[in-house]
Amino acid sequence: MTKVEYKHTEIAVKKQLGQNFLTDRNITRKIVRLSGAEPEEHILEIGPGFGALTKEIIEICPSFTVVEKDPKLAAFIRTEYPQLNVIEADFLKIDLEAVAGGRKLRILGNIPYSITSPILFRLLENRHCFMHATLMMQHEVAMRIVAVPSTKEYGILAVQLQAFFEVSYGFKVGRKVFKPQPGVDSAVITITPKEQVPLSDPEGFSHFVRCAFHQRRKTLLNNLKESYNLDAVPAEVLKLRAEALTIEEFFILFKEMKPKILS
């Protein structure tokens, strides 16, 4: 069992929580600069751990909110930074609207590899609650989020997130600046909710994107014909694969189709 100790607090690293602690202060400073955080903003940090990023955020904003699931780490943050509002809970289960309290959040976090996608989709569902998020994650996942059409990385994650957010790749973070050292590199990205999205049915669009990419090697016709009426869609479009479409083309295609009513 791997153990990490810092300032007389020792924890057994929990793989299920994806605990890899950042040790390079240059990286944490760079993350906070990239975030654009301002002193009077409503800031939320996801998973502060031993406070590597927390320490840098405090330099700008002396009082903010952190969410930490591990009881020992939550106690450490309360002791080390008594001015902070510590929510000891699973980020995936907290009420983000209640945390926001009518003020849009600026979110920062070194998010666990094991639950990166659930966190991203949680943010997608609650995009009305925050103005901007700066997140460190597995490099491979970051590349899938910022991917462009007709690449192997471009898929459901890219389309779902780019449809509703402006996404930007910040910088790569090598594995050697973490303890314990993970087997992969990380990257920092930013996501900003779009002010206008040309969709009246976001949930329906999400289902449509999943269907379109159901089997990557198949055409849109083969992936969509069981679930949608495709009569209004040009034949040349249906011959394409989902990975060939831009976000705007996904919007257009979604408007041209009607779901089949299954008896």
Automatic annotation (TrEMBL):
GO terms for molecular function: 16S rRNA (adenine(1518)-N(6)/adenine(1519)-N(6))-dimethyltransferase activity; RNA binding. It comes from the Bacteria. Specifically dimethylates two adjacent adenosines (A1518 and A1519) in the loop of a conserved hairpin near the 3'-end of 16S rRNA in the 30S particle. May play a critical role in biogenesis of 30S subunits. Keywords: Cytoplasm, Methyltransferase, RNA-binding, rRNA processing, S-adenosyl-L-methionine, Transferase. Residues 27-195 form the Ribosomal RNA adenine methylase transferase N-terminal domain. Its main location: cytoplasm. It catalyses: adenosine(1518)/adenosine(1519) in 16S rRNA + 4 S-adenosyl-L-methionine = N(6)-dimethyladenosine(1518)/N(6)-dimethyladenosine(1519) in 16S rRNA + 4 S-adenosyl-L-homocysteine + 4 H(+). S-adenosyl-L-methionine binds at residues 20, 22, 47, 68, 90, 110. HAMAP family: 16SrRNA_methyltr_A (MF_00607). Its EC number is 2.1.1.182. GO terms for cellular component: cytosol. It comes from Chlorobium limicola. This is Ribosomal RNA small subunit methyltransferase A. It is found in: Cytoplasm. InterPro entries: KsgA/Erm, rRNA_Ade_diMease-like_C, rRNA_Ade_Mease_Trfase_CS, rRNA_Ade_methylase_Trfase_N, rRNA_adenine_dimethylase, SAM-dependent_MTases_sf. The keyword RNA-binding applies.
